[in-house]
Amino acid sequence: MEKTTDLIVIADPDKDVQTGFQRLFGGHMKVVCFSESDPALVFLKQNHNTAVVFSCFNLPGRGGTAFLRAAETIVPQATRVMLTREKSAEAIKKTLNEGHAFLYLEKPCQSKDLVSAMETALAHHRQLAKERALLERTLAGSVKLLIDMLALFHPEAFRRTATVRKQALKLARQLGMKKTWELEMAAMLSPLGEALLPKQILARYRAARSLTEQERDVLDRAPAQSRELLKNIPQLEKVSDYLFLSARGYDGSGFPKDGPVGQDIPLVSRILKLLTDLWYASPENGPDAASFEALTINWRKYDPKLLELAKTVLMDDLPEARKKHIAQCYIRSLRPGDVLVDDALTESSHELVLSRGHMLTPTTIRRLEHFHQTSGVRQPIRVERHEVPEEVMIDTA
């Protein structure tokens, strides 16, 4: 066989079988062996580029049939092969009907038969990968067209897609994510549920106004609406699940109330949660120090490693002036010691609320919050931000 970069996973406790695979194929491709089902599944979750999965019938753990069925969910493009001494019709039936195996080989298996089976399995995997790539390109074009059409009718909901997609890809590169198609689709489709929400709720949320418990519940359920719309579209099943969990906080807050917590939340969902909230906390020209300050207030809602990575990666593109000195803030991210660069004005009548040059204190920030709840204050607010001595932080208003 010619040398390739294909990754082959063997799940069989028989050391002679593992040695045989390494001897036959180790010099041509990467062969990784496991003696139980669960460690093999963990490996597959971290290596979606796996080409072929071999399993014995009586695999310790969940058994060979259940293992292959789980592998199909994790790495659908990998060819699944059962290699076993079981010759009963029942075993063959379970392997093909329940494990969805592509090939069934009986032990002991001659080397030439095993090589032939490997070549057939690899050819099947490459065909699946080729078909999926074509489908993904076609589907990506269709999704782009859909987003462009929806943006004509819901410009406020979909204007963040380009920014969030770009930021998501930056994080993906830093995280070493090799396949980003599902992440891109999820970023592009993330506002889909919001587009179906009442505009007054979205307007209040974007303006940092307080929401009633009922309004908050309606907003939180936007991901569920996205899942309902997308779950029946081929190749978007996982994307719909990622969107469904994209409002779930790392600490278990948010929607759905009985959803996963921490690292059990899919990585794509955690990225979307962080970047969506960052977008709402940022001024029109992108995130700045104050934007991340706003997220840090509720830091438990975000994957801590992702939050730190986002600060590093997304702040690298900003001029030093925006990083350290001038920040465009929403009221929720103002802090004592900030100095107003411009007059703080009302939203509609542009009446003066606080004049430029005013150093903010806890009391003046609270006054801005209360004024915004009743009359509205134009945001974002530009402030000059320095390291303020501790005595300046004392409220003297």
UniProtKB/TrEMBL annotation:
Pfam families: HD_5 (PF13487), Response_reg (PF00072). Residues 7-122 form the Response regulatory domain. SUPFAM superfamilies: CheY-like (SSF52172). Gene3D superfamilies: 3.40.50.2300, Hypothetical protein af1432. PANTHER family: CYCLIC DI-GMP PHOSPHODIESTERASE TM_0186-RELATED. This is Response regulator. It comes from Roseibium sediminicola.
